[in-house]
Write a structure and sequence with these properties.
Order of helices and strands of chain A: HEHEHEHEEHHEHEH
Distance between the termini of chain A: 32 Å
Radius of gyration of chain A: 16 Å
Oligomer: homodimer
CATH superfamily of chain A: P-loop containing nucleotide triphosphate hydrolases
Bound molecules: guanosine-5'-triphosphate, magnesium ion, zinc ion
Strand content of chain A: 15-25%
Structural class of chain A: alpha/beta
Chain lengths: ~200, ~200
């Protein structure tokens, strides 16, 4: 469809620019409140924030960009208003403002939405899907497109597992049915469990 | 915009039909995995399912309609494919298939999405927003449109409160800033806490 074709063209330009400058770019997607911002802030506390930047996407408020900036990292907040996803044009403009340096890492936190961001390539090097264990093991099958092009599925909030009926094996099996190459990673952004494996994965990309 | 105007015209036709037959119609909206289906199944176990029907919306699968049918209630599953919300045309067709009886209750479970369903009137008599306490107290401000026209905000999964840093007062204050008339209701769909107040609210509509 025309909107998507236009978006993909701009995404390709973004990708060319970013990979040309060796900028590792992650598109973090998840439902509202799965822990994207918490995971990012905890991650930034463990990295050199001089070599990181964040593009934050939300309908309203700059709460998330404010939380990111508390770590010392640069952040740009995009407010989409009624819009339900970031698109490549928004990212192109944000890159123009941020001017990320060679060899840096650019995190993009997409609007909390398990549906629409799947259709909009931003020019990222990797898509990371975050599923909170509180959401249930059937979500990869019910919202397949977002897991279909994710390289990594972070299962967050594992500290709550003792209080839930979450079927971890079923969840991973469901995700692999949609995307055999997806790699699951168990994490608690609040307790720190699993953070080292996530940092290792980042470092290897 | 043209798509919305078209939708609203069909929604008005739906509303005329449903209210004309005294059919109480609830549009349940929330993020993926906040507990819409669990709440509905627990609710249906406490109601006379002969006088209830459910329209289920999901990108893929009929898991939710199957779960509803286990209670004895009639359910229709709509799969939206890439679509991120139910619209009035889909509801009109579903009503045509269900033919809900006079004085019955029609539950609509929208696609898990805190953004897009806000823009699409379905012809419901009431919009019910469900926020899981695991999602965080800032969500009403970050996703304002969905709370702006909800009559009721069900705060679900309160059984998990002892293990979370959820600021209940802040959440309610945030919701009332967006919509001074919204009524908060604390519920756990799994333990049953708060279910009587929810049934009372339903009975009074
Ligand atoms: N128990 C627990 N809570 C968590 C964890 N990670 C995040 N949270 C909580 O989950 C809530 C939502 O976290 P956020 O980081 O705002 O989630 P988000 O995905 O950025 O939300 P949006 O940007 O609005 O879509 C907050 O109350 C966090 O404290 C975790 O690992 N365990
Ligand atoms: N602890 C707890 N878990 C709950 C509660 N309600 C639902 N859940 C769990 O939350 C998960 C998701 O529940 P669903 O009913 O599928 O949520 P949903 O909103 O219908 O999800 P979608 O239709 O996919 O958007 C399941 O594992 C449920 O068991 C609750 O009150 N407390
Ligand atoms: Mg966030
Ligand atoms: Mg459901
Ligand atoms: Zn969308
Ligand atoms: Zn939409």
């Amino acid at each position: 469809q025309d909107i998507l074709a236009k978006n993909d063209a701009i995404a390709e330009k973004n990708r060319e620019f970013l990979s040309g400058r060796n900028i590792k770019t992650l598109n973090l997607v998840s439902s509202p409140g799965s822990g994207k911002t918490t995971l990012l802030t905890e991650t930034l506390k463990l990295l050199n924030t001089d070599h990181c930047a964040v593009i934050e996407g939300d309908q309203q408020t700059s709460f998330d960009a404010d939380r990111i900036r508390e770590t010392g990292a640069k952040a740009i907040q995009i407010n989409t208003g009624k819009g339900c996803h970031l698109d490549a044009q928004m990212i192109a403009e944000a890159i123009g403002r941020l001017i990320p340096e060679q060899g840096s890492t650019l995190f993009i936190e997409n609007v909390g939405n398990l549906v629409c961001p799947a259709a909009f390539d931003l020019g990222e090097s990797h898509k990371v899907a975050i599923l909170s264990v509180t959401e249930g093991e059937d979500k990869p099958l019910k919202y397949p497109d977002i897991f279909a092009d994710a390289d990594l599925m972070i299962l967050n909030k594992i500290d709550l597992l003792p209080h839930l009926n979450f079927d971890l094996d079923a969840c991973v099996a469901n995700a692999k049915r949609i995307n055999p190459k997806i790699q699951p990673l168990l994490v608690s952004a609040t307790t720190g469990e699993g953070m080292q494996a996530w940092l290792d994965w980042l470092a290897e990309r």
